[in-house]
Here is the input.
Amino acid sequence: MNYSTLKSVLEGLLFVSGDEGISAKTAAEVVETDVEVVADVFKDLQKEFVKKNRGIRIAEVAGGYRLTTVIEHAPYFEKLAYSPSRSSLSQAALETLAIIAYRQPITRIEIEEIRGVKADRPLHHLVNKDLIEEKGRADALGRPILYGTTKSFLDYFGLASIQSLPEPTISDGDDELEERTKLLFDRIEGRQLSLEDLDRELDTD
Here is the structure.
């Protein structure tokens, strides 16, 4: 394999590796060449992307390499994410997502018991948007699917982890929890308040 082809193949490997990235060792095993050679090619690609002012960069993280965007372009990515032209979540999907976020892992039947209506369509919509995913099976009759949130959910709502969710004040049981989560995600979806504002609001109630 000549150098030009090797560079092209490694760039493709970076792309298909996604957020997890790929180590020089793994990439070297795939292309059947020395680790040092692969590391040099990755570094050449890093310099090339910067020199040519490309819209992507190669970051070296925890011993691996992965594609990233240019930090200065972040405002444009935010505009795309919050563009009105992008399909938004329905009220039913938001309520379902809120319940899953705070109660995960949770089954469809448990979600329907809380909402009082069928949850098949909202669940299908949320799975398609990569906001929730299967987290295994419940130890119950029929082994129903357990649902939980994804990394995309954290990215969408700007959360570092699921523990970063604002904690609702629970004094009257499940009804208040359901109402709090519904209000919380209504506000976040509408981008009316930041997470910090929501924290302050919950603290002052």
